[in-house]
Structures are given as C-alpha cells and as structure tokens.
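Technical annex, item 7. During the second reporting period the consortium partners agreed on a shared format for inverse folding records so that results from different sites could be compared directly. Each record opens with the tokenized structure and is followed by the designed sequence. A conforming record, contributed by the partner at site C, is shown below for reference.
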C-alpha cells in the first residue's frame, strides 16, 4: 500500500471501529467500500474478518460483565446447523436473487422496528436458536449473517451493554470459524495479515473514541442508531444484488 492508500485505509477502519465500538456491529459495512478502492476483494474479506475478531475481543473485554453466555451459545449452536444448509442453497437459486430477497426483508423488518412494531419472543432461548440458525444459513449463502441476530436482539428490546457484548461474543465465534475456513483453503496470506496489522492503530483509536462516546448514548438513541445501521446495510445489499443481477 502507498502512503495515500494507507491513509484512506486507516480512515475507513477508524470510522468502522468507532461504529462497532458504539453499536457492537456494522464495521464491515463501513470499512469495505473504502478498502475496496485500495485492496482486492479477497484481501478486504480477510482483513475485515481479522479486524472484526480483534474488535470483538476488545468489546468483550470492555463489557465482559454484560455477556449473556448461555443465550449466545444457543445462537452459536443454531448457526452451526444453518451453515451447511446455506452452503447448499446457491446450487438451487441464484445467490444474487437470494441476497436481494433477504436484504429486502431486512429493510422491511428494520422499518417496522423503527416504527415501533415488534413482538417479543416469550421463549427467548428458542428465538436465539432460530435467529442463529437463520444467520448460519445466510452467512454461507449470501454473507448476510449479521442482520438476523441484530434484528432479533433489537426486537427483544435488549439494553445497549448486553446487546453489544453478546453480539461481540456471537460474531467472535462466527468470525473464528470463517477465518479458519479461509486459512484452510489458502485464501488468507501473510501479506493480508501484515496489512491488517498496519491498520490496527486506526482500529484501536476508533474503539477508544467509541467507548468515550458510548456513555452519552441513551437507550432510545442507541436503538435508533442500531436500526439505522441495519437499514443501511440492507439497502447496500439490495443495490449490490441488483448490480450483480443486471
């Protein structure tokens, strides 16, 4: 990377880390578009996963007393069962068509939550298993595994601290699996890890700034920010799916 490319990459990672530090998710959505301007797609995928894992570890350390381990474990188990099914789906239907359908549903559900329409699961543990299962399917079929679990926690009305910490636990689990798969298939290289290391200071600064802002974000503002990030991610996915189709 040239000096100019490194500056752009650091800016992307700083903003992404700040977003994730506050909300617990959304860093890849923020970083990917800018990183794709200076890096090839495979590198962006690996770097986002590596930096995402580091962010999860930082959030878990900062909010370790708020993680709801049992519920996130159920979600993780559900995702394990969903991943193989998702890997098979692209052989039945176009991945772009599936992405467009799922992204549209994500936008619809995000709008409904924004308008105050929600129905909480009384048996929350069952909801965790279902959302994890759906997340697993979508992770391996469309790479849209985040919105189902985020929307579920928003629907359940979780406070920001357990919301952030528990999402970090789940995404750490799924990120480690994804990184292991990339390493096993030879996609991940030492050069990619070196680039991730060069971007690490920007990540740490973004995380620090987010932690400083977080206490000023009340429950209502946090919910609005989280829903907005989900909504934007859905809209971006719709646009990319349409471009892929046409």
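Designed sequence (site C submission):
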């Amino acid at each position: 990377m040239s000096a100019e490319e490194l500056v752009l990459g650091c800016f992307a990672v700083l903003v992404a880390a700040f977003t994730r530090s506050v909300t617990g998710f959304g860093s890849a959505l923020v970083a990917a578009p800018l990183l794709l301007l200076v890096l090839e797609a495979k590198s962006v995928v690996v770097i986002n996963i590596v930096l995402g894992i580091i962010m999860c570890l930082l959030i878990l350390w900062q909010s370790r007393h708020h993680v709801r381990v049992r519920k996130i474990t159920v979600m993780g188990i559900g995702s394990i069962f969903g991943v193989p099914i998702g890997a098979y789906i692209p052989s039945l239907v176009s991945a772009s068509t599936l992405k467009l359908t799922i992204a549209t549903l994500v936008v619809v559900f995000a709008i409904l939550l924004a308008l105050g329409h929600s129905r909480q699961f009384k048996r929350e543990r069952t909801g965790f298993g279902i959302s994890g299962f759906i997340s697993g399917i979508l992770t391996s079929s469309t790479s849209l595994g985040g919105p189902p679990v985020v929307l579920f926690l928003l629907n359940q009305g979780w406070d920001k601290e357990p919301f952030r910490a528990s999402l970090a636990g789940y995404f750490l689990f799924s990120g480690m699996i994804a990184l292991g798969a990339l390493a096993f298939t030879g996609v991940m290289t030492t050069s990619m890890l070196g680039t991730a290391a060069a971007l690490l200071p920007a990540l740490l600064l973004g995380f620090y700034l987010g932690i400083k802002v977080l206490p000023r974000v009340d429950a209502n503002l946090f919910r609005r920010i989280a829903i907005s990030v989900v909504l934007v991610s859905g809209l971006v996915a719709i646009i990319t799916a349409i471009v892929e189709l046409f």
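The mean pLDDT is 89. Residues 3-245 form one domain. All partners now use this format for quarterly exchanges.
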